[in-house]
Amino acid sequence: MFLFNNKQQILVRNLTNRHRVFQDCCAILLQFLQICIDLGRKAYLLIAQAVHNKALAGSSPASDFGEFLQLPKTSHFEIQQFDRFIMPHFSSQNISVEQNHVLMIRMDNAKIISHILKAINFKENSVFCCTKDGLKVTVEDMKSVQLNAFIEPGIFQSYVVKEEEIKFQLNLTVLLECLNVFGSSGLQSGTSPALKLYYNGHGTPVSILLEESGVITDCKIRTVHFDPVLDYDFGTSNVIGRIIMSSECLKEVFCELDSTSDCVQFSMSPDSANFRITTFGHSGTYHVDIPKASDVIESLRCTSPVSFKYKLSLMKPSIRPLGIAQKVSLRIDDTGLICFQFMIKVEDNHNCYIDFYCPADVDFEEDE
Amino acid sequence: MKFRGKMIDPNCIKQFIGILGCMTKLGKSCILRITTTDLYFIVRESQTISASPLIWCALDEGHFFSEFGMEGLSTVDNEIYLEFVAENVARTLSALKVSGTAKSVKIKLTKKLSSPCLTFEIDLPSGTNHSRLVVHDIPVNLVPRRLWNDYLEPEAMDPDISVHMPQLRLMKSIVERMKNLANMATIHVTSEGLLTLTVETEAVSVTSHFDNLHVEKKSIGKEEEASVTIELKRLSNFLGHEQLNPQKVVCDVLQSKLMHLNFLSDSYTLQYFLPGINDQ
Fold first, then answer.
1. Please, is B45 exposed, middle or buried when counting C-beta atoms within 10 Å of its C-beta (0-12, 13-18, 19+)?
2. Complex ipTM, two decimals?
3. Does B170 touch chain A if contact means CB atoms closer than 8 Å?
4. Is A218's CB within 8 Å of B209's CB?
5. Residue A261: CA atoms inside 13 Å, Cβ hemisphere, count?
6. Which residues does residue B19 pair with via DSSP β-bridges, in sequence order?
7. Does the pTM of the predicted model rise above 0.90?
8. Distance between alpha carbon A89 and the CA centroid of its chain, in Å?
């Protein structure tokens, strides 16, 4: 087992046979263990093989330690020395390991978070914004198209945020490589590595600890000061058209859209029976009509006719989240800004959401 | 020079195909060395002996072949050294795999159209009572005697520390991911059975810890730990193509110089020598 602190390890090397020192060490270690156990199911303790020194009057420090912790006597222990840099941390009684962490997340299955984040990784840079309501990760392109992933605290085994809002920017592609270090098989299959993520504030790297079958990988990813992201204000008062539908159907439509067309047009109106998706390609104009009454549309609300065009190339980042979602809602406001909200089911009764914002292609705005 | 071997056991055939398949994916050309007792496959990426990785595989002929006969270059040098292009054999192997279990496979050294070939005669089951024989001729070059010394068996190395690697599957995946982050990684082994793999770049540092490894050997008088920096792409390439299921994998490290992976099985051994990169 491994014992973790800020530096991921406590080493106790060459512990001497001075009994009193040894007892002190045990007391502190026990306290530390308790904290680690509070941190999560994967608190490990490494007690490696013993002592090069003389045993204490018949009993070796190893077995004393074992008794102290109520560990079986027959276990094979080795006690190494406290790192002198760590000792000062533990001089006070109610030591909190986490006192330096402003953000701390624990998950039993890291695949969930990598499944969601992979869907928004259309650009390398991402901005993380952590509040008590959960984790929001934003990836933006050229101050226009934006993907946001929302993961609520209930999805994590433990979610601690010490400030009102914690924001930092890091390379999402690198983060995903780290999260998938034990293999990138799908969400349902294969391994489920345990994850602990923490961050100590501005300028420090994000630390990630992953454990799988006894192998532990720790990563430190550099953070940079975040660039402000566009805050799309999608007030409900401006929304003209809103649809909730099955994402599988929409995905089929999107995959078959004519790629020779520069843009795609979404149209709906209170009078028309259909939600229409149109492309204008080399071979002609294609309309895909999805009847409001069909099974795939859960609800469609439209206060007045709305029809806007969007550049097909800008729509591309929506394909991946569409592929992993179960339901999608589309909202278009009076400026033509479209917001897709993808609902993704993870684990039994939890959902994560991904938002996608795309402005309309303004040169070609037309009413139906 | 003569060589003739016949395999009839389906498991042996399958294993032979696996080994040969692995070797052919690891380099452009492969050397086959035949002695009276063993078959050796040797792949070396480039001609410079010290700097490039070397893959050395030895098969015990007694295990694989029910019939085996060879006559080497001369009575003094009773060995055969052949060189063949990996891609040519790969096609033979895919034919073998696709057509199901062969009843027997005969491998012979032949001369077709006045050039030497390694001929695979594969006896396949067919719907009728007649047997179906598929013959593949793979052109080979005979390696001249003066070059035989280039392919000598690598000296049994005296590693600083040697550990048993049980979690190769995880290591494969980790190395694959690390390859996307950096060019080089450092392997560090301690005599307490801890192996760590580390990459460090400006943007990220990743360390994987494999603990509680059984220490096979520790050189007396040397340090308690050893480390070497290796090129990730090469290691990832090797681990990625390695499809074998060995009974045991041992990792040896010679401080700053070499990382050696030894795949041990009853009937064959496969060794991968990966030289270290000097940080200077």
1. middle
2. 0.81
3. yes
4. yes
5. 22
6. none
7. no
8. 30
Asked if B209 has any chain A CB less than 8 Å from its own CB, the reply is yes
- With CB atoms and an 8 Å threshold, state whether B209 touches A49: no
Q: Tell me which of A3, A12, A177 to substitute to probe the interface with B (most B C-beta atoms closer than 10 Å).
A: A177
Report whether B193 contacts B212 (CB < 8 A): yes
Q: Which of B203, B206, B210 sits opposite A215 (nearest CB)?
A: B210
How wide is the angle at C-alpha A256 spanned by C-alphas A255 and A261, nearest 5°?
A: 105
Nearest to A241 by CA among A307, A302, A328, A330: A302
Q: How many CA atoms lie within 13 A of B278 on its CB side?
A: 3
- Residue from B239, B251, B238 nearest B160 by CA: B251
Chain A, residues 9-48, CB within 8 A of chain B, namely 46, 48
Q: CB A171 to CB B211 under 8 A?
A: no
Q: How many CB pairs under 8 A join A and B?
A: 66
Contact B167 A215 (CB under 8 A): yes
B2-150: which CATH number, 3.40.47.40, 3.30.390.50, 3.70.10.10, 3.30.70.120? 3.70.10.10
| pLDDT on residue A7 | 41
SS3 letters across B64-112 = HCCEEEEECCCCCCCCEEEEEEHHHHHHHHHHHHHCCCCCEEEEEEEEE
- Closest by CA position to A138, among listed A356, A360, A359: A356
Answer whether B157 touches A (CB < 8 Å).
no
CB contact under 8 A, B177 and A177: yes
pLDDT by residue (tens digit) across B71-123?
Answer: 888 888 888 888 888 888 877 887 777 656 778 888 898 888 888 888 888 88
Q: What are phi and psi of A7, to 5 degrees?
A: -100, 15
Instruction: Give the containing element (helix H, strand E) for A250.
Output: helix A247-255
Joined tokens for residue A288 = 């895909």
Q: Tell me which architecture the domain covering B161-275 has in CATH.
A: Box (3.70)
Measure the CA–CA gap between B25 and B6, rounded to whole angstroms.
24
Two domains, one topology: B2-150 and B161-275: yes
Residue holding tokens 């002198």? A84
Rounded Cα–Cα distance for residues A324 and A147 (Å): 14
| Chain segment B235-261, per-residue pLDDT in tens | 888 888 777 778 888 898 888 888 888
